[in-house]
Amino acid sequence: MLGPASRTMRPRFSRGVSQVLADPMAWNQAPVTVTTLPNGVRVATKETFSETASVGVYLDAGVRNETAQTRGSCYLLEQLALTGTAKRPMAKLEAEVESMGACLDLGYGREHTSFTMSMFQKDVAQGVDILADMVTAPGLTNLAKEKQNFLRKLEETEQPTRKVIDDRLHACAFRDYSLGFSTVGPFDGIEGLTQDHLKQYVDANYTAEKMVIAASGGIKHQELVALAEKAFGGVKAGAPVIGSTKPYFCGAELLYRNDEMGPLAYISVGWEAVPWKSPDAVTFMVMQSIIGKYKRGSGLVPGTISGNRVINAVENKMGVGCAEEFECFMNFYKDTGMFGFYVVCDEVAVEHAVGELMFGCNLLSFSVTDEEVERAKRELKATLVNGSGSTVDSCAQVGKEVLAYGRGIPPAEMMLRIDAVDAEEVKRVAYKYLNDNEISVTGLGPLHGMPQFYCLRQATSMIRY
Fold it and tell me: Of 219, 234, 375, 404, whose Cβ has the fewest other Cβ atoms within 10 Å?
């Protein structure tokens, strides 16, 4: 009897037990309710006790849906959205949003685009109407008048180095596919984009099956369904997708050496990982938490005595430390992913900083302790539940989850999935995807101490001789 009893106490729950424990009501959590309209638009709500509500339109379309001839379309559409719509000129749009006391936020990424508005409960109907107007009737006719202003803004805006490095890492890793197109600019050929190019992009991607209307806060689900059916019921479905090719991950190096830009070097290394729906996705999240993130002089626990082996090694290297900051990242996409790290270090410590992080990632395949995994799981859980609690963040989470998984993921379910990961699972996944596999590397700044690419590639496996 001890064998079966011990197995039932492990975190790998049976299907029936896990479904009961993962129910949001069992953890006093509001469930995410999803309804699909007749035309294919999905409506998802997470009702909470609040005087305000956040409503957003989330599209399964982004930079990845651009072509070599239409690079920069997402950027131009984002800028055009604030210049008015076919029904609302810019002055009227601004006046309506301000009169509601609402906040409007637009954004686009590699695979998703979002239009989000936060407002009081009584203004939800007007907010949904404005969002529908921005999505279904964008002001494309304003392009000719505003184009030079957009291009000047793009040229004059200084992007954060972190975003630039991430952009170049994707360009290096997925250089033959649109997943590697830039999200921050510059965009090749953007000067030649016309109203017809943008209309072609909108018609192909702003379609019913790619659209999710998400809301969080003081709003009833049936109320939002009725508003969405009225505002988005006329959106047409797109043409059937014939098929797509999984982006090929290219092991390569893309360095921008500039010894004049200051004493700090910015470096990023990435491995090919898994998509959103992979069974190994949660394990990658735990692996990201094992490596963690670090910034010199910040945090409650000094890095010199940190329980995180990588942070401890980086902080104590040569008695003075070898990095100003680093962060492990995990980017999920619909058919692939990227796991890796970003590090900022002094020009004389490049080899040490990159070496310690490569060694830390390599150890995931061979030498992970139960203590490390439990610490990482605790930190990952805290990250998932210790958000701002705002309706904006909750709405964005609902929209992203419905686009990625087709449903909302209750926090309780995610906790159970995290609990099911142990040290052996981490080593299995790391050995499969990281050990002796191709890497993509990019760097910016004084890189005279950067290890050769073949040395970095060799560092992905454990040399035992």
Answer: 234
Q: Which of 96, 146, 315, 413 is catalytic?
A: 146
- pLDDT tens per residue across span 221-259: 999 999 999 999 999 988 877 767 899 999 999 999 999
Asked if the model's pLDDT at residue 2 lies above 50, the reply is no
Q: Summarize pLDDT for 121-167 with one digit per residue, the tens.
A: 999 999 999 999 999 999 999 999 999 999 999 999 899 999 999 99
Q: Indicate the pTM of the whole model.
A: 0.91
Task: Look up 78 and say whether it is catalytic.
Answer: yes
User: How would residue 28 be classed by pLDDT, with cut points 50, 70 and 90?
Assistant: low
